[in-house]
From TrEMBL:
The chain crosses the membrane at residues 9-27, 47-67, 74-92, 112-132, 144-166, 178-204, 216-236, 256-274, 281-301, 307-330, 350-371. Keywords: Membrane, Transmembrane, Transmembrane helix. This is MSEP-CTERM protein. The keyword Transmembrane helix applies. Residues 460-590 form the VIT domain. InterPro entries: MSEP-CTERM, VIT. It comes from the Bacteria. It comes from Aequorivita viscosa.
Amino acid sequence: MRNLLNPKWLFVINTLPLVVLFFLFFGQFKIIKTLLEESSIQLWKSFGLSLGVLGLMNFAYAVYLTLKKRNVSVWFGLIALLCYIPFIYLYGYNLDKIIPFSIPQWMVSGNIFLYVGTFLMPTLAYSLFVLVSHFTPENKEHKAWINFLIAIGIPIAGYLFTQIILPLWQPFDRDFNVHAMVILVIAATLVFLFFLIRGVFILATKKAEVWQKYQLAWKIPIAIVLPLIGLSVNNGHLFNNFGPSDSGIFGDFNNAWFYVLAVINGIMVCLPNLENKLYRLIVFIGRSITFVYTLYFFLVFLPFLPLSVIAIIAIGTGFLMLTPLLLFVIHINELSKDFTFLRTLFSKKLIIAISLLGFLIIPAFITATYLKDKSVLNETLSYLYSPDYSKQYDIDKVSLQKTLNVIKSHKDHRDSRGGIFGNGIPYLSSYFNWLVMDNLTLSDSKINTIEKIFFGNISFELRPENIQNDNVQISNISTNSTYDKSQKAWKSWVDLEITNKSGNNWFSEYATTINLPEGCWISDYYLYVGDVKEPGILAEKKSAMWIFSQIRNENRDPGILYYLTGNKVAFRVFPFAKDEVRKTGIEFLHKEPITLNIDNNIIELGNIEETIYEKIETESIAYVSVQQKQKLNSVKRKPYFHFLVDASKNQSRNSTDFIKRIEQVIEANQPLSENAKISFVNSYVTTTTLDKDWKGEYKNQTFEGGYYLDRAIRTTLFNAYQDKSKTYPVIVVVTDSIQNAVLDKDFADLKFTFPENDLFFNLDKKGNLIEHSLTENPIKELPEILRECMFCETVLEYKLTDNSVAYLANNNQPSIILRKDIFEISETEIKEKNWQSALTMQGQWTSQILHPEISDKEWLNMVKYSFISKVMTPVTSYLVVENEAQKAMLKKKQEQALSGNKSLDLGEDTQRMSEPSLILLTILLGLVIWYREKRKRQWTE
């Protein structure tokens, strides 16, 4: 332990943690500063300045000692304790003013209340080691039992104090009582830890023959027995009612490797130090490898060392909190002995290199494991959300299941109770979230989707969002359309007054869906918050929706617009008190006159008289107006069946029946059987033609996973569109339970690929073709309609300048044609609130719908172009928030989302904090109990 007196340790133990702590709090302050009162801001500045001064003084001292080649003085240990303990104490005492209770919980970073203790405890522990080293000189004989006796006496005295003296304590001032008790606890804890560490240090360095002879008698309990008991207690295998958490009060250490490494590490520490060169080198390597395990648990429990005396008094198993500290001292001492022995046989640099390499083995193994998890996850997300329809995939399901289990273990859920570090593994979960998840997450709904596709089951029961919008209606509408002759397009404002007529005293919400015509986009938005007209902020969609969800949970004033699928836009305003009237407005950018339906209110924007019609066809995209479509020829393309047969888990028993149904429908519709295709659908899609041995191929399928109908339909539509022939598929789903298919959203984004109609069919047990919609709730069966002619719809034939043909829906709506499947956009092409720019961005979005494999690359460009043009696209959202702190949080979340995988999430729609139990409050007596006690007093007053 005397090697710790090297001043270079100060850079690692003090400087680095203080820098991290400073930037963590600075980031937090930037977000909430506008919500703080002047007194709170002054506290932030005072504590920040104090932390900066302390850090600079320690850094300067470390540099000075390094240059002078001197060891750390005992005075550093004393002064550091006298400086940092009051800092932590005052921070805890003022915590309710530094982060007031008025600050929304979702704006406060994770365990920020524990950050000060976590990052300053290494310095306090180091100071104790310095004092122990100084007051235990090598040239004197010391008795370990005296130190242990004093250490044991302190919790005994504390217990007697709480049982005898404390009940008789009659304080004359409440604040004085709190201060006095805390000072007593701090003093007792420091003395306890000093003598405990000193006793172990004497024991580990004792050269007396009796201690060496019987060293296993005290090493085995500390190095093997107590760590295993500690893991068992934390994980609930012993004393099931210990702690408030399903995953352990100090974290989830249920993985078998924690127990295996505990045994291996204990054995390495307990091995005798023989005077054999090869043996000692092997032991040194082993101890270097497992030292990271000892160090890990030392760091996990380090913030809670000041509470160890309280834990011992309050809980019989509280002494287990000290095991990592004792093991750390012994392990350091054994490594020091090995190093001293080996440096006489090998070069010092070689020994240091060996120890460093050994130390990195476990972290390297963890990193490699996490990188494998990242690879599997990214491949899976790519298959689901940015697939190449022309590519065959083969996901490693064993690795995927393991990765999902890790992700689920790291997630906090409303129905699970987390310990001090949440439901994950301390520090390792944070490392996993950074390396694998880009500091994002995978929502419960996406985990369900993945599990349903590949394993045929789900893990989470999802609760639908409760939107109270009964009788919250539009009470007044006004419009103002202006024709911009420079770009030959309309800009139209629709101003709305929305009234809560429900008589509901609870907060209500206005929520509706606006179907935009082709060639129409939203280019601005506002919402009155009180009497202030707040302009909408155009933000990345995931970030905006997350912020909206959090503000909504606080019953504050957000409004939001965002795309669902196709041209459907969600419009939400919250909250509405009883009889409240709120004003809001949306600006639409459109080429020709349009008619909007907003909650059954028909709104006409623009007029034919002022509109200038022109042919719009660029190198990559074309726009066909209603006027142009009226002059086009209608044609009838030839339909053909494309069967999508359920080949998921447990469906092999239905194969004979499914074959029979297909044969019956083919017999009844012979013209559609020509060139017919069939796809066998489970986790993947395997397609063949009906003129081959499709029956034998179907029976030879591996029936596993879920019925991934969404992928099957998208692949069918994509292939048919790419074919560009005068035929089109009639999609027939063959399954007994379409409700169990993986079909979570509609296909409105691909509407241009099925211009005839938006129908597909489910072949039921009676051989009937049951209609379903591709654009509205595909799972739902449509009402039966008698048709004069099935599959007789016509489309419009449009010839482009290169003589290629596009088939358009035969309706009274404009159409957009993608001339190039993939094309690039120059930033100079994008102009603010420009219709042509919006058309170009729509083409880019359509390109990504057809070729999702390019979306990971082009997503950031789509967001950037949307910001430049101020036109909302499917990757952005217009959001109104009410204060600068919410705007700062939106900016932070947006940066986080844009720097990560686009298929990952910022979180669940709602987040609720679980209340800690009485035992947790007891263990976290120090800072946390002051914080909570003040909170209780404030609420009662």
